[in-house]
Amino acid sequence: MVVGGGHNGLVSAAYLARAGLSVLVLERLDHTGGAAVSAAAFPGLPTRLSRYSYLVSVMPEQLMADLQLDVTLSSRRTASYTPTLRGGVPGGLMVERNERDATRQSFRDLTGSDTEYDAWREFYADVAEMARVVAPTLLQPLPNERELRDLVDPGTWRDVVTRPLGEAVERRFADDTVRGVVATDALIGTFASLDDPSLVQNRCFLYHLIGNGTGEWRVPVGGMGAVTGALHRAAVDAGATIVTGAGVSAVRADAGSDGGEVTWTSADGASHTVAGRFVLANVAPWVLRILLGEPEDPATKPEGSQLKINFLLDRLPRLRSGVDPATAFSGTLHLGEDYTQLEAAYADAAAGRVPTVMPGEVYCHSLTDPSILGDVPPGTHTLTYFGLHTPASLFDADPEGAKRVAVERAIASLDQHLEEPLMSCVARDGNGDLCLEAKIPQDVERDLAMPGGHIFHGDLDWPWSPARARLDTPAQQWGVHTDHDAVLLCGSGSRRGGAVSGLGGHHAAHAVLASI
User: Fold this and answer.
1) 38, 221, 305, 393 - which has most CB atoms within 10 Å?
2) For residue 476, what are the β-bridge partners?
């Protein structure tokens, strides 16, 4: 039994059904896909947005090949653009996806020399070497930390794994904007200072740079729903049974038993109990403990940290720097993410204030994949904003009021770089309302049952086993074990979960197959 029909649950179901096992997937909502879905978010308009998750990197190409997924991932022509205002003069830092002379010249124009770009090239070459070591292990049982450490340059291991990332960023780069562009990969969905001794920011950074050994984040053609739609078909075609509208209320796995039970309620209100050899939990570990009968523990509840805003525009706005909007918006556009701005925003949020200068990133997926637009007037485009340092606690007292302030500040962070206000470019839906949809952690929790709205189901962990970890069982070896032999994690809360990767589902399925 697979509890939860998000992308990881579907990956588990597809692998296990292809191996000839009887698989039942139970999904609370009326559709599968979890956070990786496409939706027509604005009434009367056909455009389908990747409503929550929006890019793919960490999902191994081998996994997609194993399950014969008919999915196309397209590269964005721009890696990133960071608009700047220095001394009141608009400019920007352009990084091409395949870096050429224009990228070097952009660094030179911003910083006055080639020093920062040379440091940039050296740093990312070092990280790429580490990625090429770590990425191949992601579809294998957990490697030992020592094994990987011995294959990585000691300086890179120190910078990424043993010391707070901020130390490396400050040592290797001098320019505030360049430092911030490097640092942002450590903060997506993660509320932390760059100097946090827990190193949660380092772990987030590593996952953002290791996908398929390249770290490239690509756009799924047809939106995120194309990925989970293909996974759904793969699972069903292999023989898995998928039941939607099935709210699981309890999981039982008695000590010493050779299986587990799941109790669930169907859409017609009827209660059901089904038994099987394994229960695969594609829910957050915090939720699983409640399903297993433990009391709800607010002290250990994860806390998400993101502001997601989806827009539909009549046209892309012009930038004060003069760069072509189709170039600037086609990659990741950084806003308020200078290094000092990131740390100031963290200090604001840690003190319970919505950041005065909101750090965030903007993406225009329709520039890479116009198929998501549907039949709309020429010039129409999607725009997605992902805000950092917006922990759920900021919105607890007044969710709608604090959300309104956060959205206003997010828009202001873009407007200062535009020749025309963003809202003058926003389309209107069939009801005449502006096409703007904002999601805070509380919305994510309500919509997707992710505790605290945490998109990773909890803090990310290193993708290897500690030196003295017990690896006696297949579940331990694959990083999906719980306190119950018959219950395995198969979602983002597993050892190497997080992002749209399918790794939690792959690992749980392989732990099952190694156990029978």
Assistant:
1) 305
2) none
